[in-house]
Amino acid sequence: MMELNLDMKIKEMVANCHRAGGYRLQLCSSGNISWRIDGKRVLMTASRSWIAEIEQKQIAVIDFESGESVNGVTPSVEKIFHLGVLREHEDANVVLHFQSPAATVLTCGDMAGIDFNVTPEFGYYIRSVGQVPFLTPGTRELADAVIACAKEHALVILQNHGQVTYGRDFNEAIQRAVFFEMICEIILRGGDNLKRLTPEQVASLTNA
């Protein structure tokens, strides 16, 4: 029964990876996803796997305590920050590392002073964004920076790299990523003509 349940969870993981890929949150082998399925196990996309085309054999089953793969599949090199974010947020079960086009354009520039409050979705679903400097992917240094930043923010920008968000389930994590991509595209396209929400309007959203 346990193995049958695990097989069903892996199939569900694959379906949701394809959903994320359908929104172009990850291109080719960029990005990675993890899902805490119970108190002992986490499913994670395999190293260098293509999210939009991933297969069941490319899903690693990770022991949550030790961090080791128990099914022989090598997980993403970003395994450390995935597990760290899940450990810090007991109410979060999905961690999504993505590199969608518009959002990644902004991560490669000077983000100081960018106000993302151009639509209500930011205040409702994301609320705050943190940023870490460029650090080599897959390193403990990057993982520690992401974990620390995610303590205070629902979405973390990795300078010249991409973004990380998390959620209670796939819907929440994917929605945050999709809305952030939408907001970044609005900012890129709108330029100086954009009007931001007022502080009072933002407060009405974040307090809702």
Q: Give the topology string: H per helix, E per strand.
A: HEEEHEHHEHEEHH
Question: Strand pairing plus helix content: what structural class?
Answer: alpha+beta
Query: Which stretches are low in confidence, meaning pLDDT under 50 for 5 or more residues running?
Result: none
Question: Helix proportion of residues, in percent?
Answer: 40-55%
Strand content: 15-25%
Which outline best applies?
globular
CATH topology: L-fuculose-1-phosphate Aldolase
Name of the CATH first level: Alpha Beta
Quick synopsis:
The chain is α+β, with helices and mostly antiparallel strands and 208 residues long. The chain has helices at 2-22, 79-88, 101-107, 120-126, 140-150, 170-190, 199-206; strands spanning 32-36, 41-45, 59-63, 94-98, 129-132, 155-158, 162-167. It has one domain (2-206): L-fuculose-1-phosphate Aldolase (3-Layer(aba) Sandwich).
Describe the structure using short key phrases:
L-fuculose-1-phosphate Aldolase, 7 strands, 7-stranded mixed beta sheet, 16% strand, alpha+beta, globular, 208 residues
